[in-house]
Amino acid sequence: MNIDLTQAALKFTPFHNRTSRACRTNSWYRWSGYTVVAEYSTTELEYTATRNGTSVMDLTPMYKYEIKGERAKEFINYFVTRDLSEMKDNTVAYVIWCNEAGKVVDDGTVFCLNQNEFKICCAVKMQTWLKDSAEGFDLDINDVTDDIAALSVQGPTSCSVLKNYGATNLESLKPFESKDFTIDGYSVLISRTGFTGDLGYELWTNPENAEKMWDSLMESGKHLKIRPMGMHALEMVRIEAGFIQTGTDFVSTEHALRPVRMRSPYEIGMGWLVHLTKKDYFIGKRALKAEKENGTTERVLVGLDIEGDKPAHGAVIYNKKKEDVGIVTAALWSPTLKRNIAIASLMRPYGTKIKDDIFVEIYHPEELEYKKIWATCKVVKRQFYSPERRNMVPAEVY
Amino acid sequence: MTKKIYDAIVVGAGHNGLTAASYMAKAGLDVLVLEKNDYIGGAAVSRELFPGWKYSNCSYVCSLLRPEIMRDLELYKYGLQIIPYEGSATMMKNGDYYAHYHDHDMTVKSISRHSKHDAEAYDRYSRDVMRQCKIIKPLLKMTPPDLTSFKPKDILGALEFAKHFAAKDELGGLGEKEIYDTIRFYTMSIADYLDEYFETDITKAHLAGSAIIGTALGPCSPGSAYVLLHHYMGEVDGSIGSWGYARGGMGSITKAMGECLKSHGGTIQASSEVTNVIVKNGRAVGVATLNGDEFYAKKVVSNLDVKRTFLKITDESDLQPDFVERVKNFKIRGSSGKLNIALEGLPTFPSIPKDDPGGNGDLHFTETIEEMEGAYDDWKRGQWSKMPYVDMCLPSKSDPTMAAPGKHFMSVFIQYVPFELANGGWNEQRKQDFGNHIINRIAEYSPDFKDLIAHYEVRTPKDIHDEVGLTEGNIFQGELTMDQLMFNRPITGYAQYRAPIKDLYMCSSSTHPGGGVMGAPGANAAREILSDMNIKQKGNHY
Ligand SMILES: Cc1cc2nc3c(=O)[nH]c(=O)nc-3n(C[C@H](O)[C@H](O)[C@H](O)COP(=O)(O)OP(=O)(O)OC[C@H]3O[C@@H](n4cnc5c(N)ncnc54)[C@H](O)[C@@H]3O)c2cc1C
């Protein structure tokens, strides 16, 4: 495809020739300066691919940074709240990082390629924040977003697809491990990671291999119900899995115009990633320790199970006295669970001590009129769906 | 030794029996399910009759199963996943094809290849059928009122029913014209109904299929339009009228229900045919099985069709003669057969372009309503249709668990096939002839099909009657006509899941809202039983 892109607002990913051909609806989505497919065929079918077969999603727009140097590991452990002092080569960790005030900058994954070389993959531009934070560590920090083509390959048959593709013995790879493969003469890093809550992998390679990789994957999945998946379906699976999304479920400190919108990890369900017992200092430790000790956390991010089947997009949450106690950040009628689920930010003690007797007001559009639905809801685990196959080792093979 | 007394015994582990049992167990009852076969599921099963291939032996697609039931019983926890259809197609003798797709715009584009008029009419048709679906939806959850009773509960129930019939909640109410439309819809033939919208034979034939599946009506018979509605009123995640596969075959539904039941402390005992309901002092107190065992319970619930329930396992002397007479008159005529086929590879259908999603759903080759009516004429004469209507699909094209990668399972539903043949009964030879007839018919549209067959199972209405226990092989456990629907199902005056014998209940497809893998009869029955026991169900959506 030869389109003059000099005037274009958005960049094409290295898969564009393939994704645009596979897209039957011509519907696109802006993602970090790139354009990616929103819906290829129908969102329901793409969603189903992740829960039934394999979905393939272009992940290239994720911001990616490489961090190299003798003190790389030390820096990473200082940068994120999680204790990564024991992190091994070829493993991946899910992390968040904060500012000194203990408010969340972003969440993402850290790849340990070796003890002196790491990669961070995240949703928000991080080059300056990384560099500022790494002052004095003498590291080589580079934005490699455009230098790596990435695909997410997810679903119950994904391991089989990748085995056909050439990833020998992939079934023995454990969740949050990664491995280098040479396939058709080019190298691909495969990590058992993902944003779908299902069995799945992410593939990272040089952009020049992108089209070849896409074609071989589609061929390998021919009998395994493979299908490209767009951003709309991704939103569905990530809500079911209970994953949070920067900009949707919380606002990054880098973006928040109103300082009151910044959130601590404890307010967005990420307390489990804050290791106050970590030996060394990490950014935000002081503030987070104080917050924990003084019990000053104001909000909590929870899962909701809502009556009825009308998704509660953006709905306000009330207590019995009809006082506003929070807001829904993401909502979905879950096709797999047959439940009306939502992720919601509540003012404590709602969601922590008070888990019943809360309501959402749903405005359901019905042909130019809104039906107002006053629905009861229950606070539940945010991880709504997590099938056994997700963490099984060896992975399911078809 | 005193025998254990269960709270409830359910006779039959069909999906409705399992639904009723699960709701009761969830409410705290001690429940036993007795099943005659050595497998559970009734007409919703997946069996591996040939190594490496799973068949959905009877029912093969899911749409009717109420989402509220899947939610209440948390069937996802036990592995249930529905895979939506990608499309459907009718293959034509001239080498062309007619297709519908998951994407509405694609469907309209595809219909307009055949007729611009029909493509436009399809929008209006969809609106009207959708309106009927919205009207019926709340009724599925309700116990029909007893119009012969003057109890306050029934009078209120009748008013409630009428309110829903006027679609007050769902549609903001219907005008007089729309109410007449609804009544017409319930009584019309599908041929007349489609004539009001469409001009081409192929559009009408493609759509009319849903109106004849499983019924002993032809497309020109009054009442067949309702059968279409019965097939449309389900949904796959809000897409009303759409169909999907249960991952792992229809048996995954009953497997999940069985697991749910067990997780709530219920027990299932297979290979235990119930021979009679034990009645003492006018109350059902238990059941006896073929091997002579007796089981006692406070409530006995039958998942068998109404004929088997009252003519086979209940003593006639425990019933009033006029009731028995009405049960005998219940229409339950078998009209469908099935082939389940294991294929070594994907058969080609040259009329459908390769990779066209229309080929990934239900496939047909009946091009006109006349041909369909002709197929029905054969059935009336006691013959299987020479030019049958087939509803054929390859679930393995969408579901990776039915066969090894590259291998396929094909389900072929055949309309019409009689329960009794005019030239004598079914025998092995006739069954094989019938199977070959269908295979040859498919081979006319697929040159490589025959060579790919590794194994197949032929099911006549007689087999379904004998093995699954659906009387005469009627897939709905009783014809879906107005005289047998809602407050008339199964018998006027007995539409509230209670049998004329105290503590005996019905929960099968013979009761409202009828057949198909829907679960609604089972859930409704459980609600009535629990209410008779003064037990409140908590947190349910059904
Ligand atoms: C060939 C075929 C295709 C179909 N296709 C579809 C489809 O694609 N989609 C759809 O929604 N519906 C379909 N149907 C209809 C649907 O399968 C049935 O209406 C539904 O499964 C009936 O469920 P049930 O629980 O009411 O009864 P059943 O499934 O009939 O269950 C009754 C149970 O009772 C057991 N039983 C019988 N007698 C005794 C006894 N004396 N003692 C103990 N147990 C006994 C039986 O073995 C059985 O397990 C199809 C049916 C058939 C036959």
What does this protein look like?
With 398 residues, chain A is an alpha+beta fold. Chain A contains eight helices and 19 strands. Chain A has helices at 16-22, 43-52, 72-79, 127-133, 158-165, 210-220, 231-241, 285-294, and strands at residues 27-31, 34-39, 54-58, 63-68, 91-98, 104-114, 117-122, 140-143, 149-154, 178-183, 186-191, 200-205, 226-228, 299-306, 316-318, 324-334, 339-347, 358-366, 369-380. Chain A has a six-stranded mixed sheet. Chain A has a six-stranded antiparallel barrel with strand order 14-17-16-15-18-19. The two termini of chain A are 36 Å apart. Chain B is an alpha/beta fold and 542 residues long. In chain B, strands 1, 2, 11, 12, 13, 14 and 20 form a seven-stranded mixed sheet that branches. Chain B has a four-stranded antiparallel sheet with strand order 17-18-15-19. Chain B has a three-stranded mixed sheet with strand order 7-6-16. The two termini of chain B are 40 Å apart. The mean pLDDT of chain B is 95. At the A-B interface, helix 2 of A face helix 2 and strand 5 of B. Flavin-adenine dinucleotide (FAD) binds next to helix 1, strand 15 and helix 16 of chain B.
What's the CATH architecture of the domain at 10-60 and 148-241 in chain A?
Answer: 2-Layer Sandwich
Q: Mean pLDDT of chain B, rounded to whole units?
A: 95
Number of domains of chain B: 3
Structural class of the secondary elements of chain B? alpha/beta
Strand content of chain B: 15-25%
What share of residues of chain B is helical?
25-40%
**Total beta strands of chain A:** 19
**Order of strands across the widest beta sheet of chain A?**
10-11-12-9-3-13
Bound molecules: flavin-adenine dinucleotide
Low-confidence stretches of chain A: none
Computed over alpha carbons, the radius of gyration of chain B is 23 Å
Largest sheet of chain B: 7 strands, mixed
- The CA-CA distance between the termini of chain A, in Å, is 36 Å
Determine the number of helices of chain A (DSSP H or I, runs of at least 4 residues): 8
Along the chain, the helix and strand elements of chain A come as HEEHEEHEEEHEEHEEEHEHHEEEEEE
CATH architectural type of the largest domain in chain B: 3-Layer(bba) Sandwich
Number of DSSP strands of chain B? 20
The two chains with the largest interface, and their residue counts, are: A-B, 26 and 28 residues
- CATH homology group of the domain at 10-60 and 148-241 in chain A: Probable tRNA modification gtpase trme, domain 1
